[in-house]
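Inverse folding, one chain.
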């Protein structure tokens, strides 16, 4: 898919991890939602975990929330399946670019950790399905939602954006991907 099919708007905000957790994190709610997803128990970056997600948040001091607003060139009527495939293709392409950027930022900031937009899709099929270890731990990351963050609240509070959804087989004005880079105490962005 070429860039002519959509345009991008980038947004970023930095906040304290404590404030982010107080206003945007609800681990219990999101673990319950994750149980309804096909990736639950089938992706190493998705629940159930052998750790408490709140312990992850406690290790960090700062959150840099990153959002990409994707404005599709075509918002005309299409078949429902076409709209879904079209949106999925765009989101997948942009998500890969965002993932690469976040991994580069991790290299620059010692001890930082990125959390992707949506489920980890580094592999076509996660090794967890076969009871094997993660094949790419250097690039596999949890989604920000899987560790309890409510992305809708976060992008509204810190970026002033609403997340829009496909409705009645029509693309919204824009699609949104949100991810985060968490920075440990003693480091700066």
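Residues assigned per position:
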């Amino acid at each position: 898919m070429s860039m002519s099919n959509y345009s991008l708007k980038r947004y970023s905000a930095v906040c304290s991890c404590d404030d982010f957790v107080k206003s945007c994190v609800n681990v219990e709610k999101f673990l319950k939602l994750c149980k309804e997803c096909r990736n639950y128990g089938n992706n190493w970056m998705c629940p159930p975990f052998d750790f408490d997600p709140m312990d992850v948040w406690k290790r960090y001091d700062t959150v840099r929330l990153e959002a990409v607003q994707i404005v599709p060139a075509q918002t005309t009527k299409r078949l429902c399946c076409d709209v879904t495939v079209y949106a999925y293709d765009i989101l997948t392409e942009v998500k890969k670019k965002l993932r690469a950027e976040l991994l580069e930022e991790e290299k620059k900031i010692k001890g930082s950790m990125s959390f992707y937009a949506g489920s980890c899709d580094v592999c076509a099929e996660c090794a967890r399905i076969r009871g094997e270890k993660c094949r790419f731990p250097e690039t596999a990351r949890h989604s920000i939602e899987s560790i309890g963050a409510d992305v809708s609240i976060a992008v509204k509070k810190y970026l002033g954006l609403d997340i829009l959804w496909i409705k009645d087989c029509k693309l919204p004005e824009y699609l949104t991907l949100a991810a985060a880079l968490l920075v440990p105490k003693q480091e700066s962005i």
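The chain has a mean pLDDT of 90. The first helix runs from residue 17 to 24.
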